[in-house]
């Protein structure tokens, strides 16, 4: 029986969908695009703007504006930058509408071991799957890395993958217009002939649609893998199998017109360890990778400059960084407690130096640990640590200083 394509997606564009899309864009915030219009400015005439945009989308008259190119540093300790493409607000809303129309079509087709940007899935579920596979004896790891994946996906590959399931010409042409909208960089227009921009609302879905082909090819060849967007590992039971997986991945990615980064792609073992989704995973530990630790330290350094005053605002900002880091890295599978203790001690040192405008071990006696918790209300990373008791229940660890998950001890 011949497979039926989806025809009527344009008809599903209603004002309710437009409104839901705008609210999602508003929650995600984001900077203005090339037209300088902010979300707040768009919202001032929200209904009129959404109705006008809806009519353009349904009447095949919608034309996206070029993206505003912005380069962000990969870290204070790195000279490399990552290009972002920032759409105007109305284009972001239109992309979110497309995402909401296309996701229900492709979601049932995605492989179960794909975890990135999918409902009910996250980085932690991906890592748990990898750990489960290690427990089953998959100790050899093909740690794969793409060469600037989002910037290099051929438009033809994206459109072919979409057209295989969608027959609505309006929706397909709208996606294609987004891909070829170009970018404005330093006031100069540059066309885009390849890639889907990092920062685009629909880009993660398009990436999953393209890489779903790789997922099922790996599955057909009998390989176990875990993928989160363009970050993936193939887990094998022997080095020979891992090499075969590398050959398979290379062959399939060539078919898709994308390349592996040969400098970063390698075969290792669970015993030696490897980095995945911010963690360093090995048979001995599951901790923050060094780069993640450095990012945390860099954020704390920015908030604890010695010549600045130590006040409530500084503690609130620090707590925000500590809570965000701990919420990601303090999981039931992580073994970060010793590292968290060291980092907590380092944060207190930074605060002491901020208060007394110097770094001196003698100040440890002037500003003891309990002061940070009871007086300043400083959170610690360690207090977010979890452990699993003999009954399988997850418990939070309360450090010796008596801190709670909600700030200072009462």
Approximate strand percentage? 5-15%
Give the overall shape, derived from the CA principal axes.
globular
Strand order within the widest beta sheet: 2-1-4-5
Biggest sheet details? 4 strands, mixed
Number of strands: 13
> Can you write the helix and strand succession as a string?
HHHEEHHEHHHEEHEEHEEEEHHHHHEE
Structural class: alpha+beta
The helicity comes to 40-55%
> Ranges with pLDDT <50 over ≥5 residues?
398-410
**Distance from first to last alpha carbon:** 67 Å
- Give the helix tally: 15
Mean pLDDT: 90
Based on CA atoms alone, the radius of gyration comes out at 24 Å
List keywords for this structure.
410 residues; alpha+beta; four-stranded mixed sheet; four-stranded antiparallel sheet; 13 strands; 13% strand; globular; disordered C terminus
Report what the structure shows.
This protein has helices at residues 15-28, 39-44, 46-58, 89-106, 123-135, 149-152, 155-163, 169-179, 203-220, 239-256, 290-303, 312-329, 337-356, 363-366, 369-374; strands at residues 67-73, 81-86, 140-145, 183-185, 188-190, 224-228, 231-236, 266-269, 274-276, 279-281, 286-288, 386-388, 394-396. The strands form 4 sheets. It has a 4-stranded mixed β-sheet with strand order 2-1-4-5, with no helix packed on it. The termini are far apart. It contains 15 helices and 13 strands. By secondary structure, the protein is α+β, with helices and mostly antiparallel strands. The radius of gyration is 24 Å and the shape is globular.
Give a summary of the structure in a few sentences.
This protein has 410 residues and is α+β, with helices and mostly antiparallel strands. 45% of the residues lie in helices and 13% in strands.
């Amino acid at each position: 029986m011949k497979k039926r394509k989806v025809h009527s997606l344009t008809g599903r564009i209603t004002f309710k969908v437009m409104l839901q899309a705008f609210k999602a864009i508003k929650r995600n915030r984001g900077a203005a695009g090339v037209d300088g219009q902010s979300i707040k400015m768009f919202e001032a005439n929200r209904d009129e703007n959404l109705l006008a945009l809806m009519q353009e989308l349904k009447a095949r008259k919608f034309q996206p504006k070029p993206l505003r190119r912005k380069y962000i540093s990969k870290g204070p300790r790195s000279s490399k930058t990552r290009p972002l493409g920032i759409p105007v607000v109305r284009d972001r809303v239109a992309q979110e509408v497309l995402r909401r129309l296309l996701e229900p079509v492709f979601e049932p087709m995605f492989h179960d071991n794909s975890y990135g940007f999918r409902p009910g899935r996250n980085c932690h579920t991906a890592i748990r799957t990898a750990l489960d596979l290690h427990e089953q004896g998959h100790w050899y790891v093909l740690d794969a890395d793409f060469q600037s994946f989002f910037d290099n996906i051929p438009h033809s590959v994206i459109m072919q993958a979409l057209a295989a399931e969608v027959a609505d010409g309006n929706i397909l042409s709208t996606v294609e217009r987004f891909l070829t909208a170009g970018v404005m960089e330093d006031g100069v227009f540059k066309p885009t002939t390849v890639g889907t921009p990092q920062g685009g609302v629909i880009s993660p879905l398009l990436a999953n649609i393209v890489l779903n082909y790789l997922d099922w090819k790996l599955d057909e060849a009998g390989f176990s893998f875990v993928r989160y967007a363009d970050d993936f590992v193939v887990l094998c039971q022997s080095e020979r199998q891992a090499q075969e997986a590398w050959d398979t991945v290379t062959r399939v990615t060539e078919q898709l017109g994308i390349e592996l980064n040969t400098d970063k792609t390698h075969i290792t073992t669970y015993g030696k360890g490897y980095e995945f989704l911010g963690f360093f995973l090995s048979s001995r530990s599951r901790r923050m990778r060094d780069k993640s630790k450095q990012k945390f330290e860099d954020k704390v350094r920015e908030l604890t400059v010695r010549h600045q005053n130590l006040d409530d605002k500084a503690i609130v900002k620090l707590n925000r960084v500590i809570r965000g880091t701990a919420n990601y890295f303090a999981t039931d599978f992580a073994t970060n407690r010793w590292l968290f203790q060291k980092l907590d001690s380092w944060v207190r040192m930074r605060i002491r130096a901020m208060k007394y405008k110097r770094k001196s071990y003698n100040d440890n006696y002037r500003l003891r640990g309990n002061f940070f918790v009871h007086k300043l209300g400083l959170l610690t990373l360690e207090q977010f640590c979890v452990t699993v008791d003999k009954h399988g229940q997850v418990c939070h660890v309360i450090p010796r200083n008596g801190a709670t998950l909600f700030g200072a001890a009462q």
